[in-house]
Design a protein that fits this description.
17 helices, 4-stranded mixed beta sheet, 13 strands, 5-stranded antiparallel beta sheet, alpha/beta, single chain
Amino acid sequence: IRLKLRWFCLIPFTEYCDSQTRNMNVPKDHQLHHSHIKSLIFSVPDKIGSLNEVLDIIKQNHLNLSRIESRPSKTSEWDYDFFVDFVEPTDPQLERVIEALTKSGYGVVDPSTRLERSASTTNIRGIPWFPRKAADLDLAELMEGDDLSADHPGFTDPIYRERRAYIAGVAKNFKHGVDIPRVEYSQTEIETWRVIYNKATTLYPKYACRPYNYVFPLLVQNCGYGPDTIPQLDDISKFLQECTGFRLRPAQGLISSRDFLAALAFRTFFSTQYIRHSSVPLYTPEPDVCHELLGHVPLFADPDFAEFSQEIGLASLGASDADIEKLATCYWYTIEFGLCQEEGQPKAYGAGLLSSFGELSYAMGLDEKKPQILPFDPFDAAVRKYPITTYQPVYYMAESFQDAKQKTVGFCEHDGSTLLCSIQSLHSNCGDLGY
């Protein structure tokens, strides 16, 4: 899961913000190291003088801004949310700003922990915010959407960019409890899907795990899987709910690790609907509908895998940022790139393998260069660095989904772990776990 923070200015406050911050020592160099930046989110009502009052508080505390962006608020309590980056603030400076904003009646959130404060709450809650019911996932934070990087294959293609923006808009307007809007894919998009589908499915009988090969024909029969059409998320979601209670919900792009994992606790998976650029059908720099539908979806219909995925999600609720990073890394080495053992042979269950003809071949030892395969150990996996633009040098192999789940739960409940919430207590403290 790659974290690239992108916030989009969706309301016409930009010129006003520019005029107010022009004399606030805003650095011109936006390539500052992340450790020098601290962020804050504040929410304001739609009344004259609100933003000016907030900026005055920031200036009075001698904080330097490197960015200020805005959007309509996702809550009914406020009209607008503002996201600001401060350059090298001290903790006392930041604390004074938060205290002053809170006393003035504004909503304030620290994105590093998502600890919420309000005028009626004098103490910071001890646990980072997390969803209590599936509908709360409507508040998930988008980390990267249709703002393509310069090295993306579709960056210079205006037709592709317009298409991505349209499909992202479909996901942006989605709310829990309604049917997922259908996307009418073009012939170019279907041809891209066909290339990937035909290549990947040649390897499944021999190298995919047994549960995957059991479910895949059911998706062909019930959800329209095949080389000539891209299945619709709504059809798949309803099928998964009948099998294991898992559901899909459309995503504009990359979701924060915390929110992405939290959704799994409610047996919900954020799935993109757009497809990679047709110029390189066997490569994508980010998850797309091919990765989601060929890699992730089939195993959500398997009860053991669904339970394993949910356990990772439950462990993330209320966890610290450090523990979220560890869980996200475990997720990477299991649900994204995991292997399991069947009759003494490695089989793929990770979505990054099952949706990539090239990496699946490599992981199964078909290339000249061989990867290292280790027994699954979440304590080791949680702290192992991994590349995101090359094949993995190391894969972990579990004995089964049950084995992976038990070891992951043991890791989360270990005395040395700082995870804040146990799986047992979360079952009683959360409202609707979504199944």
